[in-house]
Amino acid sequence: MSVSFLDVFTEVATSQDLPCRSYAPELFFAESPADVEYAKSLCTTCPLKAECLAGALERSEPWGVWGGQLFVQGVVVPRKRPRGRPRKSDTVTAA
């Protein structure tokens, strides 16, 4: 009999405070890049970090912070870009 991520999560979640259970769920699906980075930092001490990431990859999660990684359109990305166009001062112009 194999043990699923959900079984392990439920067992650990009842015995420990997991970040995803201790903070508002919206934090792990935030629009703000600062909030996303905060959510990722909360995952660093989670005992289920590796299992959470593996489960998210297996399920092809479309978005959110899972196992300390950010998913955007089903792909792990290093950083969330702010909405809108970059400032002109942030772009390099060819001379």
TrEMBL record:
Indicate the segments annotated as coiled coil, or none if absent: none
Q: Which residue ranges traverse the bilayer? A: none
The residues covered by the 4Fe-4S Wbl-type domain are: 19-76
UniProt-annotated location(s): Cytoplasm
> Required co-factor?
[4Fe-4S] cluster
Task: Describe how the cofactor binds.
Answer: Binds 1 [4Fe-4S] cluster per subunit. Following nitrosylation of the [4Fe-4S] cluster binds 1 [4Fe-8(NO)] cluster per subunit.
| UniProt PTM comment | Upon Fe-S cluster removal intramolecular disulfide bonds are formed.
Q: Which GO terms describe its molecular function?
A: 4 iron, 4 sulfur cluster binding; dinitrosyl-iron complex binding; DNA binding; metal ion binding; protein-disulfide reductase [NAD(P)H] activity
**What are the annotated GO cellular component locations?**
cytoplasm
The GO annotation for biological process reads:
cell redox homeostasis; negative regulation of DNA-templated transcription
Superkingdom of the source species: Bacteria
| Positions bound to [4Fe-4S] cluster | 20, 43, 46, 52
Alphabetical UniProt keywords? 4Fe-4S, Cytoplasm, Disulfide bond, DNA-binding, Iron, Iron-sulfur, Metal-binding, Transcription, Transcription regulation
Similarity comment text for this entry: Belongs to the WhiB family.
Q: What does this protein do?
A: Acts as a transcriptional regulator. Probably redox-responsive. The apo- but not holo-form probably binds DNA.
Please state what the protein is called: Transcriptional regulator WhiB
Taxonomy of the source species? Bacteria, Bacillati, Actinomycetota, Actinomycetes, Propionibacteriales
